[in-house]
UniProtKB/TrEMBL annotation:
Residues 69-111 are annotated as: Disordered. It comes from the Eukaryota. This is Rhamnogalacturonase A/B/Epimerase-like pectate lyase domain-containing protein. It holds the Pfam family Pect-lyase_RHGA_epim. Residues 100-315 form the Rhamnogalacturonase A/B/Epimerase-like pectate lyase domain. Keywords: Signal. Residues 74-86 have a biased composition (Pro residues). SUPFAM superfamilies: Pectin lyase-like (SSF51126). The keyword Signal applies. Residues 1-24 form the signal peptide.
């Protein structure tokens, strides 16, 4: 009470100071006020002080205090320098974060949350917007569907209910398919169409999610969309595809883990693994720092201009029929695979055109297979890789010419790879032979990849005889190089053969 009285006294003194200051600045001398005018001014001052006192008492007391009848109700007509807005003037902004439990989703995973999750997604997709991204794609301004760290059971795909939306994130929890989930469905489904040839979605992010398909379909499906981000996701128990990207371009998959079965290698059921972890049926996509620990195929690629870096595939061993990365597009591959780890599973490329494989590590007899479909291999670089095997004579690069031989081989560089316990194969071979005679043959079949194909030869013949014999290249058939001289001399012949270039650079 003493504190309230002190505050009230201070307010009264302050009010008196303000009134005196305001009226003291008047140009009228005090002596000129008449008795009645002075009395009126004093009444107004007292009323103003009383109003301040009442206001202070109301703010300190939980119950309202009625104004005293001895004070005049009219306040002094002074403008407030900074009026506070009334409650009716404040505007509450619409939320951009949609918490799924607010819609009735069960974070314990005991009951079905499909409808609640779809409702939250619908509100997010139909929420406030900020113009457009690509033409026709509504910019949602960074709206978020927050799973709040819960586990949610769903009985059908969470298919985006409307198309033509962008700048949205779904993050922070676990989605698990129920036992009734459709076997061809995907937990998260960006397949809604906007009815035109334009992109369906742009800049949608899936982050910090665990997706458990419960052996009832796939994880994420992205159809005809642009700049989609999948980051820090753990996708398991799929039977079709962990991630399917069809059409569109620029889907970036980063820092994620995928496997049909949760294992860390050496699984007794590995030979029975099936499904595909990542299926890219579009262009300009990127997979970076991703681990694929179980599936028949790690990454299936049927679109151009994709890049892979920091990928670790130990999905299913080659000896069991597994493939780490399968480039199933003939004629225009345009794919780069760098700084990756192919662990007991390799790379298959059909009729590769513009393919770069570099700075990778292949373990456990894993190798690169070039598969002929129409007999074309062009613009392929396989360089600076490391291979480690079981000393069983497995070649680091192999050809599958079941459908016909490679007939169009150009600009192919397979060189500078190193191997332990495996056999090096290359398109550039070097050999040396010594002898005393007029004919020298160097067999390069143990190194050269393509049978009976040498396009360019460089050779030197050196002898310590005083004479200068005439010599020439006589034959290069069956990957054997024949050099002959006009006279018999003791000589050393050094040869460099190139299979891959149609012209000298």
């Amino acid at each position: 009470m003493e504190r309230r009285a002190l505050v009230s006294s201070m307010i009264v003194v302050l009010a008196s100071f303000i009134i005196i200051q305001v009226y003291g600045e008047n140009s009228w001398p005090v002596a000129r006020f008449s008795g009645g005018r002075y009395h009126d001014q004093m009444q107004k001052m007292e009323a103003y002080k009383a109003s301040l006192l009442r206001r202070d008492l109301i703010s300190l007391s939980p119950s309202p205090i009625s104004p005293s009848s001895s004070f005049a109700p009219s306040p002094l007509p002074l403008p407030s320098p900074s009026p506070s807005p009334s409650p009716s003037q404040s505007v509450t902004p619409s939320p951009r974060v949609y918490h799924v439990t607010s819609y009735g989703a069960d974070p314990s995973g005991q009951t079905d949350s499909t409808e609640a999750l779809l409702a939250a997604m619908s509100d997010a997709l139909n929420g406030p917007s900020n113009g457009f991204l690509m033409e026709g794609i509504v910019n949602l301004g960074g709206a978020q569907v927050n799973l709040e760290g819960g586990t949610y059971i769903i009985n059908r795909p969470l298919r985006f209910p409307v198309a033509s939306r962008g700048n949205l994130m779904i993050h922070g929890g676990t989605l698990k398919a129920s036992n009734n989930f459709p076997t061809e469905g995907y937990l998260l489904d960006l397949s809604a169409t906007n009815g035109s040839d334009e992109y369906n979605y742009e800049y949608v992010s899936f982050r910090d999610l665990m997706l458990d398909s419960n052996y009832k379909g796939g994880g994420i499906q992205i159809i005809n969309s642009l700049r989609i981000s999948i980051d820090n996701c753990y996708i398991v128990h799929f039977t079709t595809n962990g991630i399917l990207v069809q059409g569109g371009h620029e889907t970036y998959i980063r820092n994620s883990f995928l496997g049909q079965h949760i294992t860390a290698g050496g699984d007794l059921g590995e030979r029975n693994f099936f499904g595909t972890a990542i299926n890219l049926m579009g262009n300009d996509n990127s997979v970076t720092d991703v681990v694929i620990f179980s599936a028949a195929i790690g990454i299936m690629v049927s679109g151009q201009a994709n890049t892979f870096s920091g990928v670790h595939c130990y999905n299913k061993a080659t000896n069991f029929g597994g493939i780490g990365i399968y480039l199933k597009l003939q004629g225009l591959t345009q794919t780069r695979i760098v700084n990756s780890y192919l662990d007991y599973t390799g790379i298959v490329a059909e009729d590769p055109v513009q393919l770069h494989i570099s700075s990778n590590f292949f373990l456990g007899d894993a190798y690169i297979l070039l598969k002929s479909i129409n007999g074309v291999v062009n613009g392929v670089n396989i360089v600076d890789n490391m291979f480690y095997g079981s000393y069983k004579g497995v070649e680091i690069v192999q050809l599958d010419q079941t459908n016909g031989a490679f007939k169009k081989v150009d600009q192919v560089v397979i060189d500078r790879n190193n191997a332990r316990g495996m056999e090096v194969k290359a398109t550039v071979a070097r050999g040396t032979v010594q002898g005393n005679g007029s004919s020298w043959t160097i067999d390069l079949n143990s190194i050269l990849l393509f049978p009976d194909l040498i396009k360019h030869i460089l050779y030197t013949l050196s002898t310590n005889r005083g004479s200068f014999p005439r010599h020439s290249l006589r034959n290069v058939s069956m990957n054997r190089v024949l050099i002959e001289s006009d006279v018999a001399v003791p000589a050393t012949v050094f040869v460099v053969a190139d299979q891959g270039k149609s012209h000298l650079s």
